[in-house]
Amino acid sequence: MDTSIAESPFLADGRQWAWNSSSLKPAKECARKYYYEVICGYVTAEENVNLIFGGIYAGALELYHSVRAAGTSHEGAVYDAVSYALGQSWDKLDANLLRDLPGAARNKTREHLIRSIVWYLDEYENDSCSTIILANGDPAVELSFKFQYSDEIWFCGHIDRLVNYAGDHYVQDQKTTGATLGAWYFKRYNPDNQMSLYTVAAEIVWKAPVKGVMIDAAQIAVGFTRFERGFTFRTPDQTAEWLRDAEYHIRLTWQAAEAGWPMNDSSCQKYGGCPFIDVCSKAPSVRQDYLDGGKYVKRFRNPLDVR
């Protein structure tokens, strides 16, 4: 299949061919959730804020590591990262607009974003892990990937950074959360769809034999931001298994369209409850009214887009 002119992640018959971790995750959980989230593009308002905050935060840190690898001083790189975050968040994370959101989303303000970036970079100024330099001489930062798995299945995504740490190679990923950090927090990433794909991509696309993913997590609270580093490891047979399982779920999703996107009601209450539980609990004839009632916004995310 020629993807050089493909702009849509969907084939002519509606089946998705370009898959990232964000689209594969709901496909594994529930066909109906996949339909609402990936095909239609619905997200809750609080989830939209989390995506915006996390994306700007990761982008600022990527910029820092990129210019540092090019020889910029720590102070100069911090300035560049903060300038980027200020520009990207200008009209998106106003505290007054977030105050009515539930849970930790109300803490994802512009002030907390800038604070977290500066504090993280100060804490890890003399980090013992270093950015890998690719064969072409570029630092392994802000890496978008796409690779073919079968005739009709490609995997794609975006990796924050590849690093050397204690003699091994890792993918580094940045996470922001409202949850308390600790061993239990990092346990959620093994097994994990996103971390497995990142490991596979690093090995296939950049030929880097990575040991797994280094996760730098930031707990965002009202009066503080706390950081902690954790790891999730993958063996070659684990990543091979993940690829086989991913193809299985993708093919089930293709079949689900013909079946009317059936609901997996055993997943509705998991992970604090599916964001579409209030919709699916209603009669099919009125579900669209609830989707359009103001709780959800449309934010279609093309897996082929570079962040």
* Uncertain spans: 1-6
Biggest sheet statistics: 7 strands, mixed
How many strands in all?
A: 9
Structural class: alpha+beta
What best-fitting shape do the alpha-carbon axes yield? globular
Helix/strand order, N-terminal first: EHHEHHHHEEEEHHEEHHHE
Instruction: Provide mean pLDDT, rounded.
Output: 94
How many separate helices? Answer: 11
β content, as a range? Answer: 15-25%
Distance between the termini: 24 Å
- What is the helix content? 40-55%
Radius of gyration over C-alpha positions, nearest whole angstrom: 20 Å
Characterization of the model:
With 307 residues, the protein is α+β, with helices and mostly antiparallel strands. The protein has a domain at 44-245. The chain contains 11 helices and 9 strands. The chain has helices at residues 21-29, 31-39, 45-69, 74-88, 95-98, 110-123, 183-187, 193-205, 236-258, 277-280, 287-291; strands at 18-19, 42-44, 130-131, 141-150, 153-165, 168-177, 210-220, 225-233, 296-298. Strand 5 (153-165) and strand 6 (168-177) form a beta hairpin.
Features:
globular, 7-stranded mixed sheet, 307 residues
Question: In a nutshell, what does this entry contain?
Answer:
41% of the residues lie in helices and 21% in strands. The protein is of the alpha+beta class and 307 residues long.
What layout of secondary structure does this protein have?
Blueprint: E1 18-19, H1 21-29, H2 31-39, E2 42-44, H3 45-69, H4 74-88, H5 95-98, H6 110-123, E3 130-131, E4 141-150, E5 153-165, E6 168-177, H7 183-187, H8 193-205, E7 210-220, E8 225-233, H9 236-258, H10 277-280, H11 287-291, E9 296-298
Helix pairs in contact: 1-2, 3-4, 3-6, 4-6, 8-9
